[in-house]
Amino acid sequence: MTFDLALRLAAAFACGVAIGLERQIRQRTAGLRTITLVASGASLFVTLGVLTGNGTAGVTQISAYVVSGVGFLGGGVIMRDKGSIQGINTAATLWCSAAVGVLCGAGHYGPAVAGTAIVLLTNTVLREVSRFINATPVSNADLVREYMLTVVCREEDEIHIRTVLTNSMYSTPLSFQSLTSEDLADRPQQVRVTATLKLHPKDQPKLEQMASRLAMEKSVSSVTWTAAEVEAAPE
Fold first, then answer.
1. Do 78 and 58 share a structural domain?
2. Within a domain: residue 234?
3. Domain MgtC-like C-terminal, which positions (predicted)?
4. Mean pLDDT of 187-201
């Protein structure tokens, strides 16, 4: 019995090392030690269920607690940087490593090895596939870019311009994010109305048409728009 439990822990350790090496080579937030500890710890918790003699029900219950605990651990490696989310792939790898550890702890070596292989294939082979897809032309990619449309008009026509902007957003349609107004200190009786929206880069001509229509308004003195750079989505 002791040898069998030790074999389960050793299997979890080996699977954790295999997954962790790939993460460590790529210098991810959760590397060799973290992944190995997660897999080994999950195996130890399931082994506890076996030792207490609660049978399948005990192992299943402990496995559920392991999943919840790893969920909190995975949340710790997810970070927000300049509006983008980083670390989701690492968190998913942690989650899968815990599943591999649970399988080892329950004595299911075949599925554990298969799970390890799937994780490694996903983080290596599918990485290249995703890079190939990301290299496709922008018109075929599922990208979103943030745009800012700025209109300077007379103060008394602010409500009219805001109404025109709002109607244009919903009739095009475009993804309307916000609409703000501010007085211009260097231009008395002038107001700057700024609309923030998100759309696919291929729909940029719609924004240009909207700007052209607004420029024809008598109360409008200037119309400008800017676009943020599209960044490659991190894992």
1. yes
2. no
3. 147-225
4. 85
